[in-house]
Amino acid sequence: MIRLAFRNLFQNKIRLVISVGGVALALLLILSLDAIFTGVERRITVYVKNSSADIFVAQSGVRNLHMASSSMPAFVRSKVKAVPGVDSVSPIQYVSNMVVIGDERNLAYIIGLPEKAAMGGPWRVSAGRSRPDPGEAIIDRTVAKNSGITLGDEVEILGEEFEVVGLTEETASLVNSVAFISEDDFTDLRGDPGTISFLLVKVKDGELPASVARRIQARVRDVTVQTTGEFANQERKVVKDMSTDLITIMNLIGFLIGLAVMALTVYTATLSRRAEYGVLKALGASNRQLYRTVLAQATLSVLIGFLVGLIITLILSFIVDGLGLNMELLVSGVSLVKVAGLSLIIAGFSAILPIRQITGLDPAAVFRGK
Amino acid sequence: MTDQTLTVNQVTKRYGSGSTEVVAVRGISLAVAPGEIVLIMGPSGSGKTTLLSMLGALLKPSEGEIRLNGNAISSLDERRLPAIRLHKFGFIFQDFNLLSALSALENVAIVAELAGVKRSVARQKATALLEVLGLKDRLNFLPEQLSGGEKQRVAIARALINDPALILADEPTANLDSKIGHEIMRLMRKIAKEQGRSVVIVSHDQRIKDIADRVLWLEDGQFKEVVTMATDPVCGMTVEREKAVRLEWDGQVFYFCATGCRDEFIDRDKQDKVNDGSLR
């Protein structure tokens, strides 16, 4: 009967294209949205992950960068350095602000880097220098490109003009970008000398970051200590919390479109073969065998639609990568499982009406030429 | 136990009730022996289709009983009927009713698969049947690529695949030309006689009388006239018993198309007896 479902599905090519295409587009909507937000999540944590630090120390209660600010006395640095297991400590200054280029205002994490900072600086520089001196800034390449500026041009950060001396890769997302200036400029402009935003900690060889983080937390007052992984997870969580409602609504829309397309095509496909199902029923096929055929047909359509949707999403992700946009599409395993699950639900629901149709078929009608 | 394949006892079918009640079949009785071909004829609306549906366990009678190989099928629970139809009946339809998406081979094999036969075995059985029916070169053809006669052969193979005791055919020659229709009917007679399967045919086609053992005339839901057919033992022609040349010979009754065949039969029998020494 599965073979019959397969043959029924592939016999009418136009119907196949409509049903599979409709489902594929609906699932593409869900998959690509998921992929966009997964990409945003990755991009938004890319600074944390590429900071070279094992541990992030912040003001008490501060657990991430996005939409947060942290301020600690500078002496905390020496206290942290004195904790057993700590190899090195680099302070950074941080504020969420704008990189202004002409009339364009680009939301950015502004990082103030100490001279010769071992951690927290740019990790992929495509042009220019990797450390800014006073009066200099390093900004994301795509931000510079989109605004039509290059090395040697000026940008405004924290109300001051800076010369662009370096362009970085992977430091822009749909949400914002990362810009680097010197620590001296940062403290001058913020007017808050004697404070630091975060401490980036490297642990000694053989030490576990989690153990050292617990030690710092126990010995230094008024700070929140997290491993880099924990800090990145918190960052991700903030973005996820902000986007969950949107994703849920779009998923629901995608689900309903997929369901409507699938239900309609399976219904019409069954309707067009009503007589054949009647013949099978007259010959002795049980309702259960016929239900299986309809369900298999719906499942096959949805699975093919799922594969087509996935392939298109992957192609899109390559295209987006090649375009050098401030975003990337990442198809995660969780997203695949979720969309596959939704597909099966769509298949099940879309088969309900045709199954009711078959239940009502009178096998004796076959002798009446119906 | 009974030696009849099918026994129909005082079967009535009513539709509706009260002033709108219609009696499609009224008090019909019938017995069909193994290997016997019964042709049911009658005008449109006479109840032929209703009767055929009841014989095939597709419709329950309002009254009376239908037995297949001694087992009452008319009183069985609805849920058991599909399995009975699948294993005990072979159906042949006027419009062939093949599944358009499946090849000839798959159309036959799927019925065996429905009955629980493994796919490979079902395909082997279907191939063998189609080859016997002269469709060796058409196994993988879709119905739309087959002629009417070929489609009906596929339908016959489909009807036979589960070794049914009874084959029910609804106007099997209606969509076939005269030559192919006759060929199909001879094929059905061969199957009935060689394999001992009973066949009940509902048709308007007078030519089918030739292959039937019995012809029943259904009118207003009742059998009006019974025509019993017999085969001339000399020329093999099917003849109506009432109109044939009758001969009682050695305690048996024989029917002939003409006196010539009767005389030849007598001469041959006498010669046989001389040869084996029983008559000098």
Summary of the model, kept short:
The complex is a heterodimer of chains A (370) and B (280). Chain A has 370 residues and is of the alpha+beta class.
List the helices and strands and how they pair.
The complex is a heterodimer of chains A (370) and B (280).
Chain A: H1 2-11, H2 13-44, H3 46-49, E1 55-59, E2 72-73, H4 76-81, E3 86-101, E4 104-113, E5 125-128, E6 136-140, H5 141-147, E7 154-157, E8 160-168, E9 177-182, H6 183-190, E10 195-196, E11 198-203, H7 209-219, E12 223-227, H8 228-272, H9 274-283, H10 287-323, H11 333-350, H12 352-359
Parallel strand pairs in A: 4-9, 6-8
Antiparallel strand pairs in A: 1-11, 1-12, 2-10, 3-4, 3-7, 3-11, 5-8, 6-9, 7-8
Chain B: E1 6-15, E2 22-32, E3 37-41, H1 48-55, E4 63-68, E5 71-72, H2 81-88, E6 89-92, H3 104-114, H4 119-132, H5 148-160, E7 166-170, H6 178-195, E8 198-202, E9 214-219, E10 222-231, E11 238-240, E12 245-249, E13 252-256, H7 259-275
Parallel strand pairs in B: 3-8, 3-9, 6-7, 7-8
Antiparallel strand pairs in B: 1-2, 1-4, 4-5, 9-10, 10-11, 12-13
